[in-house]
Amino acid sequence: MKGHVYRRGDTWSYLFDIDTDPLTGKRRQANGSGFTTERAAWTACRAAIKDYEDSRRVEPSKRKVEDALNEWLTRIQHSVKASMWQNWRNYADYYVIPHIGQRKAQDIDGAVLDALYARLLAEGRRKADNNSQMYEHWQANRDAKPADLVKACGVTIHAARAALTRYRAGRKPQGRAHGLAPKTVVNAHRMLHRAWEDFEAWKWVHRNEVFSASLNRSHRT
Fold first, then answer.
1. Domain at 201, CATH number
2. pTM for this model (two decimals)
């Protein structure tokens, strides 16, 4: 297999033929650009050809983390337990997509994941602390009825009745931290490890970058 290097403006580019499109039979080419010298372009071209011949080539892609995770969850749903799949769906929706969902999957590395885990540990909790809200409402109005707590805090009537029983017995709620429990972050990390393992196998990313995250060295998957 031979490549071709050419100058484009102030930089150098390369291209080489790859297998024809399996559906249409049309010619396809792989390419790279932005190299400052002809030598650098040839070096990159030879490396890309070797990767292609070794079936390791990963096409540049703008696929976002959100799109990648959504497709991954659809594709693996039949192969895992329903409860595990639902947990992974929740981890993706609550803890991953809101923070890095709009970044390209190929741009994610260990540093990005370390920053994500730190954010989740510090302020990752999404569920409201209804117990504290009900207690504050009751403190302001000791004559509050269960229906009042339901209206003010959006809880069920059962939860409101149980809360009033606790408060009248002198039991104060324990305030929740804003961060996720370390175990929950580890579980999210394990989900990402499995996802990126499949991304690498499907040639969506160059490698499983979850291996590079600090959390991986403390909590082996």
1. 1.10.150.130
2. 0.56
